[in-house]
């Protein structure tokens, strides 16, 4: 790993805290904030410039900033254009689009790319893989292979977005994590597709790129930080190290497990006489709906509470699902529920 | 004539926001250039004039909706804020556990989320009216949901997606019979037809300035005098007080009670100018023209195969629908349609869920495209839209 490799990381969330980079002679200790998720302190043998950025202007201004040693080396890098920073395949894609003179033909080209994109298996269409803030639905999956390069798959229900996703998949698959993280969104202008560069809710293309970069970073950090790490084998999804998971609950002691938060929410709102929460995710690992490598996706929950008095079974279940909306949106896949009032329990022989 | 991507702009997103006439822009400019001063505070000439114009704007809005008094019109930032105002003041003091609020599955998020927040805080229960097979509100079901625990019915006058029109006067009658109040979300009706709060009999009514040719950052809540009088303050601060001590204060009467701090003075005056503009044309004339447009849009769109329009049919004179159509084309994503229409034809329509996620879920769709007209659109523009849409459909169908 080159000691002078420089990568720029942009945090797409405007609310994340500014990360600082500290340099010692040969290593960097840093805390990295990626869309508000706090990752472990890690030691990397390369120099990373980190910052929270919302605008492209800021990004380019920070690019050349020197955080410590080797001032002259970074000055040269400031001059790099966006295009030179692109992985070779992406550069080819951009050039291809630049070669198409007519706008309508460019759209045709885009749709053609989308057609070629292999559909994504349903099991990968999970909230984790979904591009937030897209007006259509887009999912992106990435994998860091043994050759040290990232490979992507994507899908979308909108033809144009699928084309854009395909473009990114084609352009970024096979690149190294560092190359991917160096990609600045300004290349989008060159495609001539009138894609706005404004980071906003409706900017699917930008958000797609950001998600791919975020996942790349996580995969990269996971593979270099975990002491016994090896790149995850594509054939054994259950064994993927937890470091790659984007769920915040695995990373910090202050954040509770899903089991804890289910228990506390149900206790608080239903004042149960009896409550059992059991994680049975291991029984479901690998089947459709269980994201690769995660636990805390399936629970058996038994609640005995007066709160169910007068409620039909459907309403009881709805009540519980309503209380656990946050968990359900963050990887909790299914609950097997037993909901009874104390009277119903004592009626049983 | 504005150009977009090299094409003449055809603006069909009026349900989102309307364009502004020169007189409104002039009113804003005149204020900022001529008599920009804070209202209600000074005795000097500029302040007096600003105050006069600001209060005159209030009177214009009050007359526009036939309010019995201009004191019943509270200026807010927009309709969403107006609904939150009712939810946080009237709602929190009058609702308790077990009370019921009747809404519908087709409400705009701004007429859903505030009630969810209130329900969480008070334990009041939300009940939802479904749609009929024609995709209008199921009024029989609504009647069935009303009981002695119902405290509020809050629903749209005109739906921003379905285009259907609720018989508010009837709904008010049924609600009052069980002792419930009614809040009307009139964002899509006040700009397009004459709305008479006394004839409707509603207890609250909200609307936005920017959808009726006025500036953004301005909207209003209308409420019955005695109800507003009973409501506690919403936001605290200057303007809404009478006497202020260190540890307590006394509060002003409505509407000032609910207008804390320096208001959007220029914008209120702009809204007044918008009301003048609409009155010069005449709301009845606007409504009649829009009914024609509505029928024309609906029929033209229906003729395209594989197009599904949401909401009821237009009626023989276009009277059953507002002049908007939310629709989908089979096999083509709404976002693709609107992107292509914009890029290749300069036509502005909206795609997405139009702030009605529950409605889209109810209809079983992820998104829809929507063309929404206002009195300054023409049938020619509808033709351009239809032709552009056909071209768009051909383009994407070639890739299937």
TrEMBL record, chain A:
GO terms for biological process: iron-sulfur cluster assembly. The keyword Cytoplasm does not apply. Residues 95-214 form the Fe-S metabolism associated domain. GO terms for cellular component: chloroplast. SUPFAM superfamilies: BolA-like (SSF82657), SufE/NifU (SSF82649). Keywords: Chloroplast, Plastid, Transit peptide. Residues 236-252 have a biased composition (Basic and acidic residues). Pfam families: BolA (PF01722), SufE (PF02657). Gene3D superfamilies: 3.90.1010.10, BolA-like. Signal peptide: none annotated. The keyword Chloroplast applies. It comes from the Eukaryota. Residues 222-256 are annotated as: Disordered. It is found in: Plastid, Chloroplast. Its main location: plastid. PANTHER family: PTHR46230, SUFE-LIKE PROTEIN 1, CHLOROPLASTIC_MITOCHONDRIAL. This is Fe-S metabolism associated domain-containing protein. It comes from Ceratodon purpureus (Fire moss).
From TrEMBL, chain B:
It is an enzyme of class 2 (transferase). GO terms for molecular function: cysteine desulfurase activity; pyridoxal phosphate binding. Its EC number is 2.8.1.7. InterPro entries: Aminotrans_V_dom, Cys_dSase_SufS, PyrdxlP-dep_Trfase, PyrdxlP-dep_Trfase_major, PyrdxlP-dep_Trfase_small. CDD domains: SufS_like (cd06453). GO terms for biological process: cysteine metabolic process. Residues 10-385 form the Aminotransferase class V domain. The keyword Transferase applies. It catalyses: (sulfur carrier)-H + L-cysteine = (sulfur carrier)-SH + L-alanine. SUPFAM superfamilies: PLP-dependent transferases. Its cofactor is pyridoxal 5'-phosphate. The keyword Transferase applies. Keywords: Pyridoxal phosphate, Transferase. This is cysteine desulfurase. It comes from Ceratodon purpureus.
